[in-house]
Amino acid sequence: MSLIAIAIALSLTTLRISALNVTIVSLQTGDPGVAIGLPWTGAALQIAVQHVDRYYAQQGLDVQVSLKQINALAGHSCITGPTVANNLLAQFYYGAARSDVCYGLISNGCADFPQVTSLAAEWDWLVFNNGASDPTTKNVLNTAGTMDALGTATLSVIRHFRWQHVTVLADTDPKMTILYARMALAFIQRAKKAGNSLELDIAYSEFSGLQNSTIQKALQMAIGRSRGTD
C-alpha cells in the first residue's frame, strides 16, 4: 500500500488537484497457496487503507481510499483463472465503476493474465503485481520484481558461491502454484543468456506437489547429483 500512496501523491502533484477518490480493486481468482493470496492479505489491505487515509489527512489533502475485494477462489486454478478474472473485472467496471473515482488494481503472479492487464490499460488503471511476466507493460508496477529479476538474483547467488553443478526442482502443478515453476524457468533462461562463461551444469526436473511419487522421483534425481555422492 505504500507504493499505492506514492502513486496517489504523484497523481495529486501532477494534476494539481486537492481532492481525490481512490478505489483499490484486489482481484483473486485462485488461491496460489502462498502468502500473496487474498485469504492472507485481505485484513492487511484494510489496515493499509486506513493508514493511507490518515497519512493524507495529516498532509491536508482530501484523499478518500476504499478497498474492493473480488474473490472467486473455489475451484479455480492459475489455468482456469484468466477467463474468470477477466469476466469478474469487466462486471465490476461496467456495473459499479464511477467516472469520478481513480482506480488501481492489485493482482498477483497467479493473476498475471494478459486479458486483465489489457482491460486495465484500456481503462487507464494502474496494476500492482508481485511479479508480472512482461516487465515492459506500461500500466503495471511490479512490487516484488519481475520473474526475470528473480532469475537474475538466483544466478547472482550461484556466481557468488562459485557453484557449477545446479539441480532445479520445480513444482509445476497448477493446483498448487505456478510461481515456483516460473521462477525456475526464469533462472534457466538467465543462465543460458550468460553463456559458457559460467560453465554451469544445470539439471531440471518437474514434479507435482500433490503427487508423492513425482516428489520422490525428483528428490532421487537431486540426490544422485549431490556433491556428497561424487
Descriptive notes:
This protein has 2 domains: 2-142, 3-Layer(aba) Sandwich (Rossmann fold); 147-229. With 230 residues, the chain is an alpha/beta fold. Helices cover 46% and strands 20% of the residues. The protein is built from 7 helices and 7 strands, in the order αβαβαβαββαβαβα. α5 packs across α6. The strands form 2 sheets. The protein has a 5-stranded parallel β-sheet with strand order 2-1-3-4-5, with helices on both faces. A two-stranded parallel ribbon has the order 6-7.
Nutshell version of this structure?
This protein is 46% helix and 20% strand. By secondary structure, it is α/β, with parallel strands linked by helices.
For the structure shown, list the relevant keywords.
alpha/beta, 230 residues, 7 helices, single chain, 2 domains, Rossmann fold, two-stranded parallel ribbon
Roughly what fraction of the amino acids lie in strands?
15-25%
Report the span from N to C terminus.
49 Å
Report the top-level CATH class of the largest domain: Alpha Beta
Segments where pLDDT lies below 50 for 5+ residues? none
Write the layout of secondary structure elements.
Layout lengths: L1 H14 L3 E10 L9 H21 L3 E10 L9 H16 L5 E5 L7 H9 L3 E4 L10 E3 L4 H15 L3 E7 L7 H16 L6 E7 L4 H14 L5
Parallel strand pairs: 1-2, 1-3, 3-4, 4-5, 6-7
Helix pairs in contact: 3-4, 5-6
